[in-house]
Automatic annotation (TrEMBL):
The lineage of its organism: Bacteria, Thermotogati, Deinococcota, Deinococci, Thermales. It comes from Meiothermus luteus. InterPro entries: SBP. This is sn-glycerol-3-phosphate-binding periplasmic protein UgpB. Gene3D superfamilies: Periplasmic binding protein-like II. The keyword Transport applies. Pfam families: SBP_bac_8. Keywords: Signal, Transport. Belongs to the bacterial solute-binding protein 1 family. GO terms for cellular component: ATP-binding cassette (ABC) transporter complex, substrate-binding subunit-containing. One of its GO terms (molecular function) is maltose binding. The keyword Signal applies. SUPFAM superfamilies: Periplasmic binding protein-like II.
Amino acid sequence: MWLRLLWAGLWLGLGLALAQRPVEITFWHTLDPPGREALEKIVAEFNGRQRDYRVVLQYVGDLREGALKLTSALRAGNAPQLYYGEVSFVGRAVQENLALPLDEHLAALPSDFYPALMEAGRFRGRTYALPVELHLPVLFYNADQLASRRLTPPQSWEALASTAQQLTTRSAKGFVVVSDVYSFNAVVMGRGGQLVREGRPNFTDPKVVESLEYLQSLVRGGSAVSRNIAEAPFAMVDFVRTKVFMGIAPITLWPTLEKRTPIPFHLGVAPMPRAPDGRLPLAGGNLMVLRGASEAQARGAVALWRYWMEPGVLAEWVKATYCLPLRRSVQPLLEDFYREDPRRRVALGGLEQAQTWAQDPEVTLWYGFLEEALERVLKGNANPRQALEEAQRKALSVERR
């Protein structure tokens, strides 16, 4: 009798231990420092404050490296349950049945989230991703160089060309052009154009062609230097070493410039130039729960996001990354942060003109053709219209397969 009771007690204890074991969630991310350290802190705090879930964080390289590793993992059947992906990836993830819908887990969501920002995680009326690190582009400039020439930050594209020319010397260029799809799209949208229209590539639209002609004229005229995808990291190095004096980049690059790089000049930050009908591209990172995750893992992923979005936690996240605050209730907690350095408010002023930069599922299939065209034009001096027409033909041929 006593032996039977002993075995029953052992099995009961084992059952309780298994029942109390937290649900494990593997989380792949692509964040660089200082955002990486901030994310590690958030995950550690979340794991420590509850016993239902345990999030295992893993860095998998930059956005492009992460996408390649994710593709391989999905084919091999060992993909993570939670993935930090760029907002342009959401549509593709839905089309390929990779991302799970999350609306049922978002009941009783606080009403102070900015609707326009939350749209970055929605596709065709449903929520497939949870925004965490959204940003807008700004104009970074060498404030000392502009001040020495009594120049003000350019507010129009015509003024940017003129300012770049006046800043250019024998040893430095006024502006740096990076020929990746996001950077080019920022110029296109800022000039009132669209790379995608009604779900199809729109490369031959006059405003797209004019945007590339504009950039080529800066490079041809000697007032700008062009950097391709492989050279993109050197664009920041050029700026820090005073080899170029202006560049357009996401505001989230600022903490890297400010906290991890010695800058031998006063950093200027201003709104990106914009035509009257221009828009600002909203980009950044979302959390996606991937196919194969259990119901419990999906609930745990949303629980992590809800903790991340608590006003105090979100305020510290914004301070670390300079991303846009997703909730109105966090604004009072950021007043000292913005008052300490008013330049940090620059991106907030562009929210009314913000629009998600790309949500079309086909973007991930054709952006390579566009970037090839950009490099041929900006590095090889090819004809902008002809290069864009060829890129459009290639993109459309992929769509028809």
